[in-house]
Amino acid sequence: MAEMLILTGFIYLLVFVAGCNTMIYLFFKKEQRIAKVPAKKVTIGAFLGLITKEGKLRLQQRTEKGSPIIPGVSYRGDYELTGGGVKEKDLKKVLTLEELFKEAKREAKEELGVVVFMPKQLSLYRAVFVNQEKGTEDWALTIPIPPECWNETTKMKRITIDVNPDELRELANRPKGEQLLSGWGKRMCRMSLGTIFTSSTDPKYVNEAKIMLTEIKPDWRKTEFFKNTEEALAQFRRELGLD
């Protein structure tokens, strides 16, 4: 009888511990987004958030007339992060650290003439645009780059502007053709603030970016910001059924 009671108590203890572990896992787990479309309907954009020694974010003026995401719409003259659509068509390959950085680095060299080195610690910001009419998704993946990983004195191929969070807001409120691409609160805005939050050398800018992001999208730290890039990319591959 005593042995039976001990065995029963041990079983209850195991169940209790397992339940606690499950609750802890669910509490701390990064919210996993399930893509609403198959992988063949997803496009990837690779971007770099270039932070200056002053802790500001460098944006470039867009020279392209059209938009690959929204046909018939022009963002020429607006400001954006350096980067763009990846050339590699194999999403499983693109969603690896080496290939994603390679694509973003290529864009920075082509657009600005800047050589970028991979940071020792990488975070990632993902902003998704869903085109319900076409049944497609565009994933914009931004890697923040601290000042020691690029030379900000390089002669830029395009017109650029360095902004802190307040200046980013002012830029977003300018007229179309000279504003932050798509305006305040949109993808380019959130990716820009995410970069400042992650890599700015000025604590004031970091805090301001965090406050602004929370006002725009309260759940951004659960749904768009990823501290560990390799873990994030593995999650993205699972979301698309590539792993």
From TrEMBL:
Q: Which Gene3D superfamilies match?
A: Nucleoside Triphosphate Pyrophosphohydrolase (3.90.79.10)
The UniProt transmembrane annotation reads 6-28
* Record's keyword terms, sorted: Membrane, Transmembrane, Transmembrane helix
Protein name (Swiss-Prot/TrEMBL):
Nudix hydrolase domain-containing protein
Q: Which organism is it from?
A: Candidatus Nealsonbacteria bacterium CG23_combo_of_CG06-09_8_20_14_all_36_12
